[in-house]
Write a structure and sequence with these properties.
72% helix, Com_YlbF, 144 residues, 2 domains, YlbF family regulator, mainly alpha, YheA/YmcA-like_dom_sf
Length: 144
């Protein structure tokens, strides 16, 4: 029977982990921050506008076009205003924490698949500090 078969013990435990994550009060709080942001048209528009302007300035700079002081000031002012929006700040923090959670879970699973056992706390610490296989980036195929 395949390890990834719908009825396998690995998939059953994965589903349990997912249920545990979904029920975690901190995860629920983070999801609520994301949902609040997504439901607030003004906050989303403000965020998108600043993000888009930042991308435009980055592309201009990358293309060798010098940015004017006014362009930089305008962008920084818009960005500062954006960071005063509590809904946006909560969204950005939630997004960061959710990405960290996803990364941490991925590292545990990845290292388990590489090592053939659950990694120790020390091995996890090494992966965070850039040590371990492939400089802590994991992922096989690197001659480790």
């Amino acid at each position: 029977m395949s390890t990834v078969a719908e009825e396998s013990a690995v998939i059953a435990k994965t589903k349990e982990l997912c249920a545990e994550i979904a029920a975690d009060p901190e995860f629920i709080r983070l999801q609520k921050s994301v949902e609040t942001f997504l439901g607030d048209d003004a906050a989303r528009l403000q965020y998108q506008s600043v993000h888009q302007r930042g991308e435009e300035l980055h592309q201009k700079k990358h293309a060798g076009i010098e940015l004017s002081d006014a362009e930089i000031r305008d962008f920084e002012a818009a960005r500062e205003t954006l960071f005063q929006n509590k809904i946006v700040l909560n969204f950005l923090q939630a997004q960061k924490e959710l990405e960290e959670l996803q990364s941490e879970i991925g590292k545990y699973v990845g290292m388990t698949l590489e090592l053939g056992r659950v990694p120790t706390d020390e091995e996890m610490e090494e992966s965070h500090s850039g040590g371990g296989c492939c400089g802590g980036h994991g992922g096989g195929g690197c001659g480790c």
